[in-house]
Amino acid sequence: MSQCVTEAPETTSYSPYGLSFSPEELIDKIHFLQTEKKAVILAHNYQVPEVQDIADFTGDSLGLSMEATKTDAKIIVFCGVHFMAESAKILNPDKKVLLPHLGAGCSLADSITPESLDDWKRRYPGYTVVTYINSSAEVKAESDICCTSANAVAVVRSLKTDKVLFTPDRNLGRWVQAQVPDKDIAIYDGACPTHDVLRGANLLKTKQVFPDAVVIAHPECREDIVDIADEVCSTTGMMAAVARHPEARTFIVATENGIIHQLKKRFPDKEFVMADGCIGCRLHCPYMKVTGLEDVYLSLKEERYEIRVDAEVIQGARRALDRMMAVPRDN
Ligand code: 13P
Question: Is 294 domain-assigned?
Fold first, then answer.
């Protein structure tokens, strides 16, 4: 339908660290170090396939946070982005939490700072602050409760108050407002550039090619996408969404392209198509893709890059995360 590629490109053998191990050798070395150091490897569903495949647990932000609270490993190697590793540290202050690549940031998390949150709080006095997990530890510490895409609706419904300040993702905030119309929800103006780039017209063009496909969208997508979608859910929620449609052969997926690897693994007989008709173009988070097997190996070998969070910040952020984890997931 366009000149876009439909399969992920082959990874090259170029090593930014000057290493000369084959992927098989790297995998062996990672497993050896992992056992020796009693480390657990957690990977987000958007990571590159080879990193998802060496992980002990692959999941969405909520699942990974939960897993971080259950592990008895001494070291957590977090293959995801910085705020995710930081959340694991907040939940495990006594464990060593490592982020294999320092470039693994998040534009959405960067769109809110303690100062900008204070500004919004001044504009909405008395509102309960619900902050998406895609935020820094400092911002979490100044929030009343956190949420992820898997429990945002349930978290807002669980609050006794009717006045909510939802930060920082405006698309997720709008989605929650549509599900909980009886509450007054003030919405911060951040967005994930990877999700926010997609337009309804792109999705409709793909739907014309696959008219019988079920459309699954992440709630970080814009309103015109979630309005068309048959299912709106977190990345792990997408697995359950596919299982809910046994009759469907093709699924159009509106989220970051890393999810296709997990979906294909779990449902090898189904066809998954990116919402913009292209595997590697728009729905691609550059931060999620910086971590490779060499980074995981060097992270374990040199115990780098250790996540540190100020004890006072941990206390506040932990309160917001604990309140969130007491609410069951809604997708
Ligand atoms: P999930 O929690 O649904 O995996 O989403 C994480 C995320 O950062 C989406 O951009």
Answer: yes
Write out residues with Cβ below 6 Å of ligand 1: 45, 60-61, 134, 148-149, 192, 220, 234-235
Cβ neighbors of 70 (< 8 A, separation 6 or more) are none
Question: What pLDDT shows up at residue 278?
Answer: 81
Closest CA to 170 of 200, 195, 201: 195
Question: How far, in Å, CA of 133 to CA of 108, rounded?
Answer: 10
List the domain range (segments joined by +) for residue 96. 23-104+288-302
Closest C-alpha to 272, from 249, 289, 288: 249
Angle between helices 82-91 and 311-325 (to 10 degrees): 90
Q: Among 235, 329, 331, which is best to mutate for testing ligand 1, by the most ligand atoms less than 8 A from CB?
A: 235
Q: What is the CATH number of the domain that holds 63?
A: 3.40.50.10800
- For the chain, helix, strand, coil in percent to 5 are 40, 15, 45
pLDDT at residue 228 is higher than 70: yes
Ligand 1: atom nearest CA of 218 is: 3
> What pLDDT, on a 0 to 100 scale, did the predictor assign at position 12?
57
pLDDT digits (tens, 9 = 90+) for 240-297: 999 999 999 999 999 999 999 999 999 999 999 999 988 667 899 999 999 999 999 9
| Residues in contact with 28: Cβ distance below 8 Å, sequence separation at least 6, in sequence order | none
Q: Is 5 a domain residue?
A: no
Contact 225, 198 (CB under 8 A): yes
Percent of the chain with pLDDT over 70: 95
Q: Which of 110, 218, 255, 256 to mutate to test the pocket of ligand 1 (most atoms within 8 A of CB)?
A: 218
User: Residue 45 falls within a domain, yes or no?
Assistant: yes
Number of structural domains, the chain? 3
Residue type at 248? A
d(CA 267, CA 271): 8
